[in-house]
């Protein structure tokens, strides 16, 4: 039986997506804890790309970034998956009703989810992946977001890859590995 992921529960259908993964040489519980609170300021590239997009850079801990950008921590299953998301009409809005998000009982033009998923490969190795999914509700949103996605996707990918590298480094260094 295949276990349903949170990302599949919240946004099984999507218009655009991006996926990255890395292997970390630490147990799953430790890696999960590190990932939930990573310090994005450890990457000069992430800070630069945030500044370039006029995103806040004063507080670069993941949980602060989520709050500062009006994203929402949607749900988590420790130590397997953490799901973040938002929806937008004319601007990004935090999700206050998770059931409305799942059942589409909203008037959003855009729905976005972003996860960190953790799979124990054995007792000392964890596969960490991150996926972003975007659902454009209307055709016009799909056209405009598609143009935006062409420009932003490579930079978004760099940010996600750097995040995974920070998770790996912080997890492995915490025990003198690496």
Could you describe the 3D structure shown?
Strands 1, 2, 3, 4, 5 and 6 form a six-stranded antiparallel beta sheet that branches. Helix content is 40%, strand content 26%. The longest helix has 35 residues, at 139-173. With 178 residues, it is α+β, with helices and mostly antiparallel strands. The protein has helices spanning 6-10, 28-36, 44-52, 62-68, 98-103, 139-173; strands at residues 16-24, 72-77, 81-88, 92-93, 110-120, 126-136. The protein has one domain: Alpha-D-Glucose-1,6-Bisphosphate, Chain A, domain 4 (2-Layer Sandwich), CATH 3.30.530.
Assign the CATH architecture: 2-Layer Sandwich
Name the poorly predicted regions. none
- Number of helical segments with 4 or more residues: 6
Using the coordinates above, name the CATH class: Alpha Beta
Task: List how many beta strands DSSP finds.
Answer: 6
CATH superfamily: START domain
Report Rg. Answer: 16 Å
Q: Strand share of the residues?
A: 25-35%
Supply database-style keywords.
single chain; 178 residues; alpha+beta; Alpha-D-Glucose-1,6-Bisphosphate, Chain A, domain 4; six-stranded antiparallel β-sheet; 6 helices; 6 strands
């Amino acid at each position: 039986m295949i276990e349903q992921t949170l990302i599949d529960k919240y946004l099984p259908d999507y218009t655009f997506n991006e996926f990255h993964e890395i292997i970390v040489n630490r147990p799953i519980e430790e890696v999960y804890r590190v990932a939930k609170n990573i310090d994005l300021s450890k990457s000069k590239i992430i800070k630069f790309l945030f500044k370039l997009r006029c995103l806040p850079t004063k507080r670069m801990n993941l949980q602060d970034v989520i709050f500062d950008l009006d994203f929402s921590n949607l749900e988590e299953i420790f130590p397997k998956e953490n799901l973040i998301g938002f929806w937008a009409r004319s601007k990004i809005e935090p999700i206050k009703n998770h059931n409305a998000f799942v059942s589409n009982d909203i008037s959003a033009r855009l729905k976005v989810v972003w996860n960190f998923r953790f799979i124990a490969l054995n007792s000392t190795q964890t596969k960490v992946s991150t996926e972003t999914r975007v659902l454009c509700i209307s055709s016009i949103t799909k056209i405009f977001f598609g143009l935006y996605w062409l420009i932003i996707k490579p930079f978004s990918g760099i940010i996600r890859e750097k995040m995974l590298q920070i998770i790996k480094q912080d997890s492995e260094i915490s025990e003198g590995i690496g």
